[in-house]
Amino acid sequence: MPRLARNSYGKSSVRLVKVVRQGDRHEIRDLTVDISLEGDFERAHTAGDNSAVLPTDTMKNTVYAKAREEPLGEPEVFAAMLARHFLKVSPASSIARVRIAEHPWRHLRVGSREHGSSFERASRERRMAEATAAREGTLDVFGGLDDAFILKSSNSAFEGYPHDRYTTLMETRDRLLATSLSARWRYGDETKSYGVIAKVVRNALIEAFAEHQSESVQHTLYAMAKAALEQSVEIDEISLRMPNKHHLLVDLTAFGLDNPNEVFVATTEPYGLIQATVRR
Amino acid sequence: MPRLARNSYGKSSVRLVKVVRQGDRHEIRDLTVDISLEGDFERAHTAGDNSAVLPTDTMKNTVYAKAREEPLGEPEVFAAMLARHFLKVSPASSIARVRIAEHPWRHLRVGSREHGSSFERASRERRMAEATAAREGTLDVFGGLDDAFILKSSNSAFEGYPHDRYTTLMETRDRLLATSLSARWRYGDETKSYGVIAKVVRNALIEAFAEHQSESVQHTLYAMAKAALEQSVEIDEISLRMPNKHHLLVDLTAFGLDNPNEVFVATTEPYGLIQATVRR
Amino acid sequence: MPRLARNSYGKSSVRLVKVVRQGDRHEIRDLTVDISLEGDFERAHTAGDNSAVLPTDTMKNTVYAKAREEPLGEPEVFAAMLARHFLKVSPASSIARVRIAEHPWRHLRVGSREHGSSFERASRERRMAEATAAREGTLDVFGGLDDAFILKSSNSAFEGYPHDRYTTLMETRDRLLATSLSARWRYGDETKSYGVIAKVVRNALIEAFAEHQSESVQHTLYAMAKAALEQSVEIDEISLRMPNKHHLLVDLTAFGLDNPNEVFVATTEPYGLIQATVRR
Amino acid sequence: MPRLARNSYGKSSVRLVKVVRQGDRHEIRDLTVDISLEGDFERAHTAGDNSAVLPTDTMKNTVYAKAREEPLGEPEVFAAMLARHFLKVSPASSIARVRIAEHPWRHLRVGSREHGSSFERASRERRMAEATAAREGTLDVFGGLDDAFILKSSNSAFEGYPHDRYTTLMETRDRLLATSLSARWRYGDETKSYGVIAKVVRNALIEAFAEHQSESVQHTLYAMAKAALEQSVEIDEISLRMPNKHHLLVDLTAFGLDNPNEVFVATTEPYGLIQATVRR
User: Fold this and answer.
1) How far is CA C42 from the centre of its chain?
2) Which CATH number fits domain D147-279: 2.40.50.140, 3.10.270.10, 2.60.260.20, 3.30.300.130?
3) What is residue D116's three-state secondary structure?
4) D contacts of B166 (beta carbons < 8 Å)
5) CB-CB neighbors (< 8 A) of B163 in chain C
6) pTM of the model
7) Nearest chain B Cα distance for residue A210, angstroms
8) Which CATH superfamily is domain D9-137 in?
9) Judged by CB atoms within 8 Å, which residues 15-74 of A form the interface with B?
10) What is the CATH number that goes with domain A148-279?
11) pLDDT tens column, D38-94
12) pLDDT (0 to 100) of residue B39
């Protein structure tokens, strides 16, 4: 009889928008929530016995009900609350994971002031939060961000790499470097001020990216991770994912033109992909 | 013999990034260019005779070469220059159209100052420009914007509509209204300052959206178009496209909870779609 | 006072799946329906008066109710029925348009037989149908298809085109030609057998594409349109949209290798775009 | 000094199309290749020393050159060859991974015969192959498939699950079950006939899905995995990912209509997500 080695199930892409009102001043919280449970669901798989299977539809309902019953707070807090809740109501689960993407809205400006209840989506960058609650009582909380599209038009080089018979890339001291940054950092146990830390870490990442004398994506990735760990003692580990969104210098010589790092073609395929985890 | 009633061809999605340097201060121009020609290409279709068919590959090359040879200027100016160029080099063409989407980048901040050569994508909203040059000498120039994702959490109603046997929608004086706005406006003949006008028009649209006491998407769309025409005499027509990105109030009564316009589910399908053109 | 020059509104992306059962043999009808009305909706725009505005939510409900009340039949028939219905229940409308995309499912095979109630999505190609009902009594019906991804690895050339200072493309008698075909054809007045005609037209398009000695996309497009008009007298006009999905020959000379039209890189940006309408 | 805990880099989305010709009969091989290396790249990260960093551009070139130099064979074979090659040319690497998605094309039919050099994309389902070569000499090879969109309109139930205060889902003996199946199976050491095994495994998965009396997605997933392991002794483990693409029964009672499992709305968000790995 084949053995169930691993299993998980849950609900993904639960889209929640909450309007928080203080008089005429509103705030928009716009979240995408993913929930996943792991544990002893053997009989559901092998015998069609659903007595331990909390429906994913119930998970979805729970997100909406909890969003009404409680203040959302930082996404890490909401994720942790949900993870603990699902662990409690699903005795078969040994682990409950909740991941939240928060989509940013900002108030529209009318003349020189902010309108209280009109908004625009600020950017496609999303703040991320993940919480994993385990039956034995541990809770791991991660913060992060996804899809921060950033670019350097100077201070980026790539040279000194090995050449083999398939190498055609030209070494360069000056190239355009662009990435769509994803980051995940693990909060230490005693953290409460997720929002403050998330801002400090994001700032550290962005400023290190901006200021770095880059010899490669790896080199800049590490400098960014290092800066984040240095500037926020509340995190003990950070993972960065940096796709190299290549901008290729266009060869204009056929038209009698030079191209001193000025005209590029932005490409989507293929792309380099650089990932690393850095710890204290 | 079947007759060729209409035809067009061209190159789409030419991705151009230009770095404009003034010392250590750089600017990023990030454009997607679409080119299309119409005219007498009968023999290409019916006889396989390509003697009148300027290759779309040449169109692409031209975009990159022109980006090096000339300052880009406003996207409307670049689009108009390209449209006239293609009309000139393709004698068979009676019409040349060029459409440009400009993707916004802004300088990263390091501490309290802007970094000169590091950037982040500002939002997914794109500034649009379209130019149509005709053999008889006319040039039509349109400005616009695509994908401005905006939302009102108050001052939006929908009631007083006809009911038939398939109507279940509840009338409401307070709903959440969200759209991903697209706009196109036609510039008058004598315009030169596209950038200034585009800012004025965008501002008019956004402020009218923010301030409007909305009775429907149509009602707000018209108010926005009216505001744009009033605040910028240099445009004579504006078309708006406003998908109604429905945010549905979640029914929490099964959980013993009310929901005073607080918790919504954001949906993508189906969506309302409201479009109109307004003229002086 | 600015004048409302054109306007339309409706519901898009209504996702309908209907299971049609004959004993143990089921069929899946999977449609995406878009509805749009045009007419005298002036007061909705200018005065916030919704008394003429059939809610788009009602349109959505109507699609689902009609799908239960009536056999769906060919998508053209369902589109025409819906268009006429909306014209009737919305007296302010002068035109009602309904567009349907049908997503294909086929029965799964178990051993040598088809399973009666298990299915797989057949391809990403969609059958299209559009109906426009006008107040004055006319009904225009179009059939079509979207996103038929087809490719020729021989009998495709491109040469004899004009050269200017920006031309670098090499002339060729042998290239790879790929497109994602969209087609729309207008049915004559007396047509009833949409399904049969749609099959004949699709066959004509596909066979002409396969067999054509192509001198350009335009040349093949016209041959396809001509074949469709010749093989189906029930249609009087056909429009084709053929993006040229470029497959670029990889230059392997740096590695001491030739490349006799064998190894290509498939690209998505930029792409050529060829469109034409052909009539009897 | 922060420590580099894990790192990987490589090239993703290398798009390769190869035309294989036997006289007038061609075949299209259409692959997307992802390459990733892990190993001792510490100095690239911490010191900007690229002497061990095989450029991702070289990886891309290698894919195209190897596609010309060698017959592609089964995607598993090409992946394994590439993984071993990259391990050899990158001494710093301890692990080289290559993942290949193969996009299916089939010959177009003209009348009753297949055209030798004209094709259509068969479906959006992709055959997958992954090879991981390790410095110590091991090679792990996985086969798989992604995005097989399948649906059951009978023999699917979900009942007997726990209820809590957030449960509103109705128990049912008859629902529509749809998923976009992904599978990965590990080949045993001595396997050579990847193509035959991949067909047997796919068949086993599809037939088990079609025939299963489903009490839940988990129940069907396990039955599918079990069937695959039983019908192919050459694989020792299989992982399945089955998003539950919910089709919701439309409530038509407001229109005086019943809905005996006939009219559904297909939804994309939120979705259930069921995953498991099953071993001998």
Assistant:
1) 32
2) 3.10.270.10
3) strand
4) 255
5) 58
6) 0.97
7) 5
8) Urate Oxidase; (3.10.270.10)
9) 15-21, 24, 26, 28, 30, 61, 64-65, 67-69
10) 3.10.270.10
11) 999 999 999 999 999 999 999 999 999 999 999 999 999 999 999 999 999 999 999
12) 98
Assess contact for A250 and A264: CB atoms under 8 A: yes
B119 CB near a chain C CB, below 8 Å? no
Peptide bond into A270 cis (omega under 30): yes
ipTM of the complex model: 0.96
Q: Do C207 and D111 touch (CB under 8 A)?
A: yes
pLDDT in tens, A110-122: 999 999 999 999 9
Query: What's the gap between Cα D86 and its chain centre?
Result: 23
Whether residue C9 contacts residue B222, with contact meaning beta carbons closer than 8 Å, is answered with no
- The catalytic site residues of B sit at 11, 56, 246
Q: Which of A6, A277, A15 is nearest to A142 (CA)?
A: A277
Q: Is the dihedral of CA D134, D137, D140, D141 positive or negative?
A: positive
CB-CB neighbours of A245 under 10 Å: 18
pLDDT recorded at residue D194: 96
C279: exposed, middle or buried (C-beta count within 10 Å: 0-12, 13-18, 19+)? middle
Contact across the interface for C168 and A269, Cβ inside 8 Å: no
* Domain range list for chain A: 9-137, 148-279
Rounded-to-integer distance, Cα C147 and Cα C124, Å: 7
Question: Concatenated DSSP letters for A133-171?
Answer: EETTS-EEEEEEEEEEEEEESSSB-B------TT--PPP
Structural tokens at position B153? 């959490």
D145: chain C residues, CB-CB within 8 Å: none
Which bin fits D137, alpha (ψ -120 to 50), beta or left (φ > 0)? left
Question: How many Cβ contacts (< 8 angstroms) between chains A and D?
Answer: 240
